[in-house]
Amino acid sequence: MRRKGFTAAGVRDITAAAGVPQGSFTNHFTSKEAFGLEILDRYFADVRDLIAATLRAPDLPPLRRLAAYFDAVTARLAERGWHHGCLVGNMSLESAEHSEAIRARLAAIFAEWREPFAECLAQARERGELADGAAPDDLADFLLSSWQGAILRMKVERDPAPLERFTRVVFTGVLRPPPR
User: Fold this and answer.
1) How many CA atoms lie within 13 A of 149 on its CB side?
2) What is the pLDDT confidence band of residue 57, given thresholds at 50, 70 and 90?
3) Which CATH class is domain 32-174?
4) Mean pLDDT computed over 171-179
5) So which domain of life are we looking at (predicted)?
6) pTM of full prediction above 0.85
7) In 3-state terms, what secondary structure has residue 56?
8) How high is the pLDDT of residue 8?
9) Residue 172 to residue 68: CA distance in whole angstroms
10) What is the C-alpha to C-alpha distance for residues 51 and 22, in angstroms, rounded to an integer?
């Protein structure tokens, strides 16, 4: 999946990589689409763990939790040599136009993913650490979309510069404290 992408990887490729007979696939999944949905669920379970460790870390202030999340993802991407990116982003590009079930699951994932970002942003505003401006939900959507774009550019350039630029712009301009 990471090497070929969901669309290009055939069932034969998937079973060969798993070292199982091709018939085993149909015993577990009714279709390749059902397999894609399961992959998304498992991948996002890992994202939830990362969210719990960063965006919902009770010992960090809200904006520091956001930075910790982006730092943790950047570290994971570095371990992969700036290849592959985010499976949710990859599947969004590959499959949202071709599978209504996958598109709907991706939409639900993004909606859930936005919530801990919005919570951090609302808490930062309540603490006086963030200037008034866009609603936390809108700002959270903006951050997720921009982050996904930075990951896409990272994949193309095979370089962390787009991720570094994202965090620099977000934390020095977008998420600025209120004037004193």
Assistant:
1) 9
2) very high
3) mainly alpha
4) 87
5) Bacteria
6) yes
7) coil
8) 81
9) 16
10) 35
Return the DSSP state at 177: P
Percent helix, strand and coil across the chain, each to the nearest 5: 70, 0, 30
CB 91 within 8 A of CB 106: yes
What tokens were used for 165?
A: 């630029």
> Please, how many CA atoms are within 13 Å of residue 50, restricted to the half-sphere of its CB?
18
Distance CA 40, CA 103 (A): 11
**CB neighbours of 18 closer than 8 A, spacing ≥ 6?**
24
Residue ranges per domain, the chain?
A: 32-174
- Cβ-based neighbours of 102, under 8 Å, separated by 6 or more: 33, 36, 37, 40, 91, 95, 96
Which two tokens mark 159?
């370089």
Q: Looking only at Cα atoms, what is the longest distance across the chain?
A: 66
